[in-house]
Amino acid sequence: MSTELNVMVVDDSALYRHILTTAVAAIPGCTVAATAPNGAIALQKMERTRPDLVLLDCEMPVLGGLETLTEIRRRFPETVVVMVSGVNQNAAAVTFEALNRGAIEFIPKPEGATAAASEALLRERLRHVCGVSAALSHSVSSSTKAEGGSRAKSGAASPSADGAKALRANTPARVDAVVIGISTGGPNALAKLLPLLPARLGVPVLIVQHMPPYFTSCLAKSLGKHSAMPVLEGVDGAEVQPDQIVLAPGGHHMALRRDGRKLRIALNEDAPVKNCRPAVDVLFRSAAEHYGANALAIVMTGMGDDGCDGARVLRARGARCITQSRETCVIYGMPRALVDAGLSDESLPIEGLADRIAALAAPQRSCA
User: Fold this and answer.
1) Contact of 94 with 58, CB cutoff 8 Å
2) Does 2 score more than 60 pLDDT?
3) Using CA atoms, how far apart are residues 33 and 270, in angstroms rounded to an integer?
4) d(CA 333, CA 132)
5) Per-residue b/e over 67-96, b at no fewer than 16 CB within 10 Å?
6) Catalytically annotated residues
7) How far is residue 143's CA from residue 138's CA, in Å, rounded to a whole number?
8) What domains are there in the chain, each with its CATH number?
């Protein structure tokens, strides 16, 4: 496969097609293969151009984003689709349905203070999704070449994940909180993980999923429909309680603060960490401060290395850090950063993560 990433831009707004096309063309290694004003024309052009990545508007006439996505997944399964969404509750709901149907990521249409600020924000987001798409395209190409030889049909971990090891024997038996960091591919991964956890886990679960405002609220509602525990978007000052799942709100870092014998959620709008707000590192460092060795950190699918620095602090306090296995990640970036740094105690598929969390929290459930 060529190292050049061929991109198709699909949007009913001629202005936004121009903005997206200009932004993509400015990214090294990316070429605009075609544009289309609706899904029907896009599907026709895809037969000829076979793009690696489609930037797909959520709401369009003739053939809308969701219907177009369904057809792309059926007819061009090797093509990566990223949704381009408005920033409001309705658009967020449509975006989550698109993620359920196979889109791997989304870009909210930027609303910067100025046109220049909006374009700069868009370019940054596009660089991220183009990096994700290139990694996925490379992964598909590599796995096709290696099919049948390097990976057992049982789904065993790949050789690059063999830094995973058994849990350290000297780690404390008690877990007082579970903290999870996750990014690209996260909504679907969480939708698989959280329903597998028991209603009476005995400890709180705190999650940072890289997402902007509006979208985390929709994610919490979506996840809560299928989880045995309530899933809440974090509110500043709310008490951290067992048997609750708290999701960091988009645009805010989520940490913890002590209030007598209670721990409460502490939100802030400090500068992004590793271009992320919320950032996993912020939550992990705070968990290390307040839970110490009795925190359990889980790092799941995502691009980059957010969470690695926080995991290092947690490990220094004696806490466990477990990563999602390579073969079950959409992007094996964040987990790999921990594995390569020697910070992962164990790498497990999603079902294994749920079993391990429940098992390690079992002493707390027995005391409840």
Assistant:
1) yes
2) no
3) 39
4) 10
5) ebbebbeeebeebbbbbbbbeeeebbbbbb
6) 183, 210, 306
7) 8
8) 5-144 (3.40.50.2300), 162-367 (3.40.50.180)
pLDDT, position 71 = 97
Beta bridge partners of 232: 246
Sequence-distant (6+) residues with CB within 8 A of 110 are: 117, 118, 119, 121, 122, 125
Between CA 298 and CA 357 the distance in angstroms is 9
3-state helix, strand, coil in the chain (%, to 5): 40, 20, 35
- In angstroms, the CA 277 to CA 267 distance is 11
Per-residue confidence (pLDDT) for residue 364, from 0 to 100: 66
Residue entry with tokens 């070429």: 31
> 165: how many CB neighbours lie within 10 A of its CB?
12
Distance between CA atoms of residues 352 and 358, nearest Å: 10
Beta-strand relationship, 80-85 and 53-57 = parallel
Give the whole-angstrom CA distance, residue 248 versus residue 277.
9
Percentage of the chain surpassing pLDDT 70?
Answer: 85
CA–CA separation, 308 and 1 (whole Å): 31
